[in-house]
Amino acid sequence: MFRYLLSIIVLISTCFISSFTPIHGNITTRIKDIAYVQGVRDNFLFGYGLVIGLQGSGDKIDFTKNLAKNIFEKLGVVITVADFDSKNIASVLVTANIRPFAKPGDKMDILVSSIGDAKSLEGGVLVHTTLQGVDNEVYAVAQGPLSIGGYNVGGKAADSRKNIATTGNIPQGALIEKEIPVHIFHENSITLSLHDSDFTTSLRLMEIINAIFPDSAQAVSAAEVRITPPQEFRTMDRVTQFISRIGELPITPDAIARVVINERTGTIVAGENVRISTVAVAHGSLTITISEKTEASQPGSFAPTSATTKELDRTTIDIEEEEAKLHIIPDGVSISEIARALNVLGVTPRDLMAIFQAIHKAGALHADLIIM
Q1: Is the pLDDT of residue 361 over 90?
Q2: How many angstroms separate the CA atoms of 228 and 250, rounded?
Q3: Are residues 107 and 58 in the same domain?
Q4: Per the structure, how many domains does the chain have?
Q5: Does residue 88 sit in the same domain as residue 142?
Q6: Axis crossing angle, helix 199-212 with helix 2-20, rounded to the nearest 10
Q7: Among 96, 172, 255, 294, fewest CB within 10 Å belongs to which?
Q8: Tens of pLDDT, residues 39-73
């Protein structure tokens, strides 16, 4: 009965917050979409091994031969490096990303990359390879046929390639042998970290949680909110329920005004909070055309016998300049109004980048300008 009443109280409180929380934007999302619990993270694993079954496109280096020799010695086969003259093997580095809460017996994808002078790993099979973490503990074992997803063919005079043939992956190619511990509960508290640090969003997050669980949350920085669960949620099975309820609470995140420009692709992305002071913008274009041609000059009828035909260079320069129109963009306009005003000028994305940079240089752009 207590749990039933508590669920009703949480539902009513959530609706209450949604109705009276000040709206600072048009997007309301869940806490779980903008923050994560510290301690819940992926981990990288790595190892090195041997790929076999190649069609003469393997390594020629001695390192690979020594690696193959060591593997066969573990299998009870006595062989020397001098006896090993195969081009069907390659030494590789194996990397993987293990998700949090992964259990022994779970499978994960792996990436296999050549570390020798192999031309291609197409058709190869990875031999039993252990994967370890930064603590040198073995957490998974990898094995299986590689998937290249391309081709690399050629002859004596030409070749053709699609994708990189010296890198491949093995879907579900690693078997987890040991669980990586996940620590989320420290000194009777958990910590939420924002994906995008912001003091306003951190404060809103604290207020929303405290409305449901009074005096349990404290914003300690622009990126972290420390939460002390009520006494009944301080066991490992109950803290999961507590985190789940917090993650479903609605929040309207704030964001710093930014204009992001990618000069390579001509892409411009501006946030809704971008504002500018009153500026005058003039936009025009200058086109210069230079034409070069060569003419032959023939001697005249009464020219001396020593006269010869000569080549003369002729250069023609045409200059076309469009009339630049001056437009006034008023103070405090939104990004949609800025775009509308600049579209009147008929600017291209490349020109728009130059205009935004000029407005920023003039001190009239009240936003971060990020150029990629």
Answers
A1: no
A2: 20
A3: yes
A4: 3
A5: yes
A6: 140
A7: 294
A8: 898 999 999 999 999 988 888 888 888 888 888 88
